[in-house]
User: Which sequence fits this backbone?
């Protein structure tokens, strides 16, 4: 098993919420942590890891939305969003089915999803995956402001670049 450190400036989280007016999008680099995988890894080998993102980095680029996000996420009280892979199963080729714990806004929930892992070179792996989370599962209520209603399901996608 080799430990690959996540490269924050090349590891990105995207999130997209739907609203009654238009999509609300987040794109941020800055994921940190590690991935443990066998060198020359294929989906038959186990995969584990830990990742973190400072909740203050979750920004839309719209100052009004960002203020509301900061307030609702309570970034001073809950400064980190953390994820831990607790189980993996190869799905063939470069595909894995992962099970893990996501800690967000003071609540930890178990999630499952599919990722693709590929070796960029002998010291670098790239992992990509996506899932949908319901923010109500993390003690958050989506905002409703005048005519704008934000729906609770958020599509989250990550791309992680990690090096030995």
Assistant:
């Amino acid at each position: 098993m080799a430990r690959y450190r996540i490269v924050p400036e090349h590891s990105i989280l995207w999130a997209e919420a739907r609203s009654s007016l238009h999509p609300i999008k987040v794109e941020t680099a800055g994921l940190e942590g590690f991935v443990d995988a066998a060198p020359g890894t294929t989906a038959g080998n186990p995969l584990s890891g830990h990742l973190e993102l400072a909740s203050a980095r979750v920004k839309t680029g719209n100052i009004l939305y960002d203020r509301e996000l900061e307030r609702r996420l309570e970034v001073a009280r809950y400064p980190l969003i953390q994820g831990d892979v607790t189980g993996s199963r190869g799905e063939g080729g470069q595909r894995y089915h992962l099970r893990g714990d996501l800690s967000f806004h003071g609540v930890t929930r178990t999630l499952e999803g599919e990722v693709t892992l590929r070796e960029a070179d002998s010291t670098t792996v790239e992992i990509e995956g996506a899932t949908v989370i319901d923010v109500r599962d993390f003690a958050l209520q989506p905002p409703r402001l005048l005519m704008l209603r934000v729906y609770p399901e958020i599509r989250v996608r990550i791309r992680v670049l990690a090096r030995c």
